[in-house]
Amino acid sequence: MSHNNVQPIYILPEDTRRTTGKDAQRNNILAAKAVAQAVRTTLGPKGMDKMLVDDAGDVIVTNDGVTILKEMHIEHPAAKMVVEVAKTQEEVVGDGTTTAVVLAGELLKRAENLLDQEIHPTVLARGYRLAEGEAQRLLQALAEDISVTDTTLSLQIAITAMTGKGAEASKEKLAMLIVKAIGKVLEDSGNKVTVNKDNIKIETRAGESTEKSELIEGIVLDKERAHPSMPQKADDARVALLDCALEIKNTEIDAKVQITDPSQWHSFLDQEEKTLREMVKRITQSGAKVVFCQRGIDDMAQYFLAKEKILAVRRVKKSDMEKLALATGGRIISNWKELSEADLGKAGVVQERKVGEEEMIFVEKCPNPKAVTLLIRGGTEHVVEEIQRAVTDAIGDIAAAFENEKVVAGAGAMEMELAKELRAYAQSLTGREQLAVQAFAEALEIIPRTLAENAGLDPIDTLTKLRFAHEKPQGKWIGINVFTGEVMDAWKEGVIEPLKVKTQALSSAADAAEMILRIDDVILGGYGKEKRKTSSSEGEADLM
Q1: How far apart are CA 154 and CA 156, in angstroms?
Q2: Can you say whether residue 405 is alpha, beta or left, with left for phi > 0 and alpha for psi between -120 and 50 degrees?
């Protein structure tokens, strides 16, 4: 029986695109390298900013890696995997996103050279795993301990995180505020230190110098008094936190009230008024002078509260209510009938203040606040938003340092030391994995190289100086001073980063690189004419 006329069998839809073998690997690596290239120029104290404009014309000016990648709306599937590296870094640590992405891109670039030499992708992946494991071990051995009482190191971590960002002009002032804020919210059980970053609320307002930023030992709400006749300020205030409406409830089912006589109407209104008076009476009897309500407050209830000289704020967000409970020590009550003096929180001052053009409620001078507010000021909206991102990074860095209790020097020092040690480690291997470990070591040098390039320095001269310095016995903390172009002892100069930034960046970058390297078949299905296609040509990947 002849098989010459057998028809080909199609198992995929007609509109499916498939790329296999080396073409798939090349395209994926090209896309990942393009993502890294997009954020590479933002790295370090001399990094540049990106201007991102969305479809609505809204503008963001930033050098924060994860913000840039989120706003770019990347479509290529391999490029999305690299974006996930930045998102994971942001969620776990809060800083180091650009470092992680640039490192992932360089690992793939080095791997591409080895693929051209017919090194199998699984051998490369195994070599990268060995190198990453050894690098993690070295990092743990090289790191120094930090204590929650070490204010100097904490300040240096915060300043390092903000250097090169929008907050740099006032980084010392902001660092002091951040360290104080973390000192208020951290929990030290003796065995473990935990810092809930969510308990540090960041409020921003444009129109003033960043030097006017302040730490409020309590909570600031973007709200105003419920009624203009209420007092603007309450000293030594007892605070009630209500998760129930101070108004007459509607029935849960459709219902009608049939009134056949005017007296019935008046009786109905009187009953409503009586209920509202009872609500206010219960609040007054508890001793509360300030009420924060998560739901609505009836107009008549507002009037009664104002008559009792009680300051009330309505429709407070649930997250803010939880922070108010932590700051004042009060309990959130779901039924006004159960409110008692024991449920009230305390605040030295609660007042309505005008910040810029808007009124805000300040709950200040709380006795032992476990939630605080950083009120960040800046000249314009774009400036203050970038300062907020820098402050968020600094908070994440200090929190990671305290929780991990380990820190290392920055300025490219760690990457150079790891590269040196990994080259020595590679010599102990006999298989082709040795080449992958060497490639991993070379990839680590992309961080000091990029720092030098972004500062306008000669990267070859810089790397040569760093390699020479790291060959010396006491050279492990030697990094690049981007302001002078010379090498420096980064530890003595106060360029300090939490160990967690380095370990997480290495882990995420290596995992992403290994996963992309192991892909040899890309099947793109369901692409209609209306959907834009991601393509690569002439050595460039189209991300948008």
Answers
A1: 5
A2: left
Calpha distance 63→68 (Å, rounded) = 7
Report the C-alpha gap between 390 and 208 in whole angstroms: 18
What is the longest distance spanned by two Cα atoms in the chain? 102
Determine how many CB atoms are found less than 10 A away from the CB of residue 243: 16
Exposed e or buried b per residue across 448-465, where buried means at least 16 C-beta atoms within 10 angstroms of its C-beta: bbbbbbbbebebeebbeb
What percentage of the chain's residues is helix, strand, coil (to nearest 5)? 50, 20, 35
pLDDT band at 527 (very low <50, low <70, confident <90, very high): very low
Query: What structural domains and CATH numbers belong to the chain?
Result: 17-145+408-529 (1.10.560.10), 147-217+369-404 (3.30.260.10), 220-368 (3.50.7.10)
Helices (H), 41-76: 65-71
In this structure, the strands spanning 233-242 and 332-333 are parallel
Could you give the CA distance from residue 371 to residue 216 in angstroms, rounded to a whole number?
10
Residue 153 has pLDDT above 60, yes or no: yes
Which among 451, 452, 446, 450 has a CA at the least distance from the CA of 419?
A: 446
DSSP character string of 300-343? HHHHHHHHTT-EEE-S--HHHHHHHHHHH---EES-GGG--GGG
SS3 427: coil
Question: For 440-480, what is each residue's pLDDT tens digit?
Answer: 888 888 888 888 888 888 888 888 888 888 888 777 888 88
Q: Is 440 left (phi over 0), alpha (psi -120 to 50) or beta?
A: alpha
* Catalytic annotation, residues: 64, 97-98, 393
Q: Which of 82, 98, 93 is nearest to 28 (CA)?
A: 82
* Closest residue by Cα to residue 494 from 151, 46, 160: 160
Identity of residue 157: I
For the residues 362-381, what does the mean pLDDT come to?
85
Lowest mean pLDDT among 120-129, 276-285, 376-385, 518-527: 518-527
Cα torsion through 495, 498, 500, 505, rounded to 10: -20
- If you average pLDDT over every residue of the chain, what do you get? 80
Backbone phi, psi, residue 189, to 5°: -90, 0
Rounded Cα–Cα distance for residues 516 and 374 (Å): 41
Nearest alpha carbon to residue 349 among 178, 220, 212: 220
What percentage of residues in the chain have a pLDDT greater than 70?
A: 86
Q: Give the residue among 33, 112, 37, 128 at the shortest CA–CA distance from 79.
A: 33
**Residue 14: partners with Cβ closer than 8 Å, 6 or more residues away:** none
Nearest 5°: the CA angle 267, 270, 271 is 85
